[in-house]
C-alpha cells in the first residue's frame, strides 16, 4: 500500500483554475449574508464579485474611498442576492459595532465575515510617527479582532459561520521597513488559529470555521503606492535598491483569491484547513488531496519556529527537565 502521508508539491496558480471555476460555485452561498471590509480596492472588488457569483447577500464596507458605482451593478448581474454599502472605519470599535448593528437590522443575520481592509506603509521604524504605526496595527489587527469578537457571538448562537482573514506572506517573514504590516499580519494569522482552537474545543469547529490567507501578489492601489518610486526614494540610500523591482512579483488575478475564499466559505476545506494560514497560490485541490499529510503534521500551514536540537514550543523537551549543576550562590544573595 502506498504511503498516504507522502507529499507532492501542489501546483502554483496565479489565476482561476478548474477546481475553483466560478460556474462550479454558482449559487453555493445563496442568501448568505457576507460582510467584506475594504471593498473599494482591487482585492475587495474581486472578493465582492466572486461572492456575488455564489449568490451571497453582500454588505460591502469602505472608509475614505467609496467603491466605483458600477460595482453594485456587476455584483447583481453576477448573481448577488442583494448589495449594500456601509461606510465604516474598522480601526475604531464604535465603527465595527455600528457595522454589525446595521447589518443585523438590514438582514437579520450574518453568515460570513471577510476581513480584507488593510494599511501598508514603507519606512524605517525609528522614523515612523507612532500614530502611523498604531493606525496600521488598528486597521490590520484590531479591526478584524473587533468584528470577529462581535460576530462570533452570533455565529455560536446560530451554530454556523465563516471568517476569512486576508493576511499576507508578510506575516510569516521579516521584511525591513514594513514592521507594522508584518507584525499585524503575523498577529492576524495567529488570532485566526487561536480562535479556531477554542471553537474546536467547544465542539463548534465543524459549524464555525475560519481561515487566514495570503491573497496573492495583486497590484492594488495600496501596493502601488507603497512601492512607488516616490515612496522608495524616502528609504535610506543603502536600502532603496532592495525595493526598486518589488512590484515585479505582483501579477496575480484578484479573482484567484476571491474564488479560493468562496470555496473555503462553502466548507470544502474545513476538515483539515480550518484555523490554518493558506497561500492562494497553491492549488487548493492539490492541498486537499493530501489530507493525511496535513493531519500528521500540525505545523503545516501555521506559524511556527524551529530550534537547534529540535526543542519544541510545547510539552517537555527531549530528555526532560533537569536542574542545572551551578553549585554556587548567585552574587548578591
From TrEMBL:
Q: Which Pfam families did the record assign?
A: adh_short
Kindly indicate whether the keyword Lipoprotein belongs to this entry: no
Q: Do the record's keywords include Oxidoreductase?
A: yes
Instruction: State the UniProt keywords alphabetically.
Output: NADP, Oxidoreductase
What PROSITE patterns does the annotation carry?
ADH_SHORT
Instruction: Provide the function of this protein.
Output: Putative oxidoreductase.
- Protein family according to the UniProt entry: Belongs to the short-chain dehydrogenases/reductases (SDR) family.
Name of this protein: NAD(P)-binding protein
What species was this sequence derived from?
Podospora pseudopauciseta
Amino acid at each position: 500500500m502506498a504511503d498516504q502521508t507522502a507529499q507532492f508539491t501542489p501546483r502554483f496558480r496565479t489565476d482561476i483554475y478548474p477546481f475553483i471555476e466560478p460556474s462550479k460555485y454558482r449559487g453555493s452561498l445563496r442568501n448568505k449574508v457576507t460582510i467584506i471590509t475594504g471593498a473599494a480596492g482591487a482585492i475587495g472588488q474581486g472578493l465582492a464579485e466572486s461572492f456575488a457569483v455564489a449568490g451571497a447577500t453582500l454588505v460591502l464596507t469602505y472608509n475614505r474611498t467609496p467603491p466605483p458605482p458600477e460595482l453594485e451593478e456587476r455584483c447583481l448581474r453576477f448573481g448577488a442576492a442583494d448589495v449594500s454599502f456601509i461606510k465604516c472605519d474598522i480601526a475604531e470599535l464604535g465603527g465595527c459595532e455600528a457595522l454589525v448593528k446595521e447589518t443585523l437590522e438590514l438582514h437579520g443575520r450574518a453568515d460570513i465575515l471577510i476581513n480584507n481592509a488593510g494599511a501598508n506603509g514603507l519606512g524605517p521604524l525609528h522614523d515612523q510617527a507612532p500614530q502611523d504605526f498604531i493606525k496600521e496595527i488598528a486597521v490590520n489587527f484590531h479591526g478584524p479582532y473587533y468584528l470577529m469578537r462581535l460576530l462570533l457571538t452570533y455565529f455560536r448562537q446560530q451554530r454556523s459561520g465563516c471568517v476569512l482573514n486576508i493576511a499576507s506572506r508578510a506575516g510569516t517573514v521579516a521584511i525591513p521597513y514594513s514592521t507594522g504590516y508584518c507584525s499585524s499580519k503575523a498577529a492576524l494569522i495567529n488570532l485566526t488559529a487561536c480562535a479556531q482552537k477554542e471553537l474546536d474545543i467547544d465542539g463548534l469547529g465543524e459549524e464555525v470555521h475560519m481561515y487566514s490567507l495570503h491573497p496573492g501578489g495583486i497590484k492594488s492601489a495600496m501596493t502601488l503606492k507603497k512601492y512607488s518610486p516616490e515612496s522608495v526614494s524616502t528609504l535610506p540610500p543603502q536600502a532603496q535598491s532592495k525595493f526598486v523591482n518589488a512590484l515585479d512579483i505582483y501579477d496575480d488575478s484578484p479573482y484567484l483569491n476571491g474564488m479560493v475564499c468562496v470555496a473555503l466559505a462553502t466548507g470544502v476545506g474545513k476538515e483539515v484547513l480550518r484555523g490554518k494560514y493558506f497561500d492562494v497560490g497553491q492549488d487548493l485541490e492539490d492541498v486537499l488531496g493530501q489530507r493525511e499529510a496535513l493531519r500528521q503534521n500540525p505545523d503545516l500551514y501555521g506559524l511556527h519556529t524551529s530550534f537547534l536540537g529540535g526543542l519544541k514550543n510545547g510539552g517537555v523537551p527531549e530528555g526532560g527537565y533537569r536542574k542545572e549543576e551551578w553549585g554556587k550562590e548567585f552574587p548578591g544573595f
